UniProtKB/TrEMBL annotation:
Domain of life per record: Bacteria
Family statement: Belongs to the sulfur carrier protein TusA family.
This protein's name: Sulfurtransferase TusA family protein
Species name: Pacificimonas pallii
Organism phylogeny: Bacteria, Pseudomonadati, Pseudomonadota, Alphaproteobacteria, Sphingomonadales
Domain UPF0033, residue spans: 14-38
Length: 78
């Protein structure tokens, strides 16, 4: 079952649990494309590769990426 962005009051949640590399980053990208700059996304992923891939993907785009815990990040697009 593909992860879909879910809009809540604080952020757009991207639940990529159960997806393997590169799908968590692709789901993040897909969710961010439809949002204006400065949007906040909460990403959850349980693929070990996401621990490296999500922060690198964000850094390449100049996005702020804060690790909130294992497999959970808050991202602000720029």
């Amino acid at each position: 079952m593909p992860a879909k962005p879910v809009k809540n009051d604080a952020a757009t949640a991207v639940d990529a649990r159960g997806l393997r590399c590169p799908l968590p980053v692709l789901r993040l990208r897909k969710a961010a494309i439809s949002l204006p700059l400065g949007s906040v996304l909460d990403v959850t992923a349980d693929d070990p590769a996401a621990e490296r891939d999500v922060p690198v993907f964000c850094a390449e785009r100049g996005w702020v990426c804060k690790r909130l815990g294992d497999g959970h990040w808050r991202i602000v697009t720029a």
